[in-house]
Amino acid sequence: MKILVINSGSSSIKFQLINMENLEVLAKGLVERIGISGSKLNYYRKAEKKVIEQPIKDHKEGINLIISYLTDLNEGVIKDKNEISAVGHRVVHAGEKYSGTVVLNEDVMNALKACIPLAPLHNPPNIIGIEAAMNILPGIPMTGIFDTAFHHTIPEKAYIYAIPYKYYEKYRIRRYGFHGTSHFYVAKEGAKKLGKDLKELKIISCHLGNGSSITAIKNGESVDTSMGFTPLEGLVMGTRCGDIDPSIPMFLQKNEEIDYNEVDRILNKMSGLQGISEVSSDIRDIEKRAEDGDHQAHLAIEILAYRIKKYIGSYIAAMNGVDLIVFTAGIGENDCLVRKMVLEDMEFFGIHLDSIANDKVVRKYGVISTPDSNVTVMVIPTNEELEIAKQTLKLVLNKEKQDFGFSSY
Ligand code: ADP
Predict the structure, then answer these.
(1) What pLDDT score does 117 carry?
(2) What percent of the residues of the chain are helix, what percent strand, and what percent coil, each to the nearest 5?
(3) Domain 2-146: what homologous superfamily?
(4) Is-above-0.90 flag for pTM?
């Protein structure tokens, strides 16, 4: 069985075709710059990379191009598009409706459209990508895997904000949380590595990329997470501010004489690592500048690590303990310095960092706590595409079940 995983952004489509018999990635790639000049397909088959530069007007043309390469006589990996057993789509926001993976049908599509006000930047391109794929691959089952779904188990006390309750009732303003597929995947892998049942563990998973979030997972269920109503809340990110005093946007609006669109741009695109360092949103550039003695660059790294440390402490309190802490995504998998700054001076919690191991674990699985640490700390490379493909497979094999709760497998 071969499953195609699709992640559609506003001007891009990421894809992977996975053979579910041996979990081999047969081909993968990225369509970029859809609808603007310089559009292209980056197509990878085994170690070979091909760049196909051509005008790609919209998502339908992008998916058509992907399928034509996957089935190409010379470049392809399948003979016919009907060899694709199912398509798993990553979707950012499912609101409160879905607690797991669903087969995409008219009802679900309507529910996703209803969620557009909650995710105006993410859901529209996801929906366009799904509709294009349905058009090009008629009759092939399609599933939606939602970034929010894993956090469906968060209790009310952790998802209701202390603003008038009527705004929850009217607009569904609440914590949703994101990166759910990644948090679930690394928690499951971590439990496997420990040789324990996910349902018996307290896990804190730190997904630290350009967008970052941290999740408390108790007995296999998300019980709290740092991103909120939108992905702006929580940790310090590449360009997003994370937690700030909620009166700051009002202050800026008034004193800078700017409208709410500009405030939105400042908090989403000009803050975080970029905003503090005034160097870059990429931690690698910031670390280079910090080594040269740049104060703001050094400060950006300190604030990033300090915020993660505080969240870990609060989630230990929320779960009354922790067995396993996992680091994943670009910074989590690669950045030994940030991991060290987060994990140092946490002995009170029974967290003991193995500094030598920490320096060696880059872009691979590894344990970075000492053997006598009460809490195990691991680096686990995330693989959202594989998780999407696995869930899609389970769903198409169990057609009678429409909505799989994450905790049910
Ligand atoms: P996203 O999927 O959210 O766009 P990623 O998980 O790919 O992000 O993470 C991107 C970030 O990870 C980069 O902005 C960079 O700060 C960091 N990163 C990537 N590679 C490395 C590395 N080798 N060392 C340190 N940081 C890295």
Answers:
(1) 87
(2) 45, 20, 35
(3) ATPase, nucleotide binding domain (3.30.420.40)
(4) yes
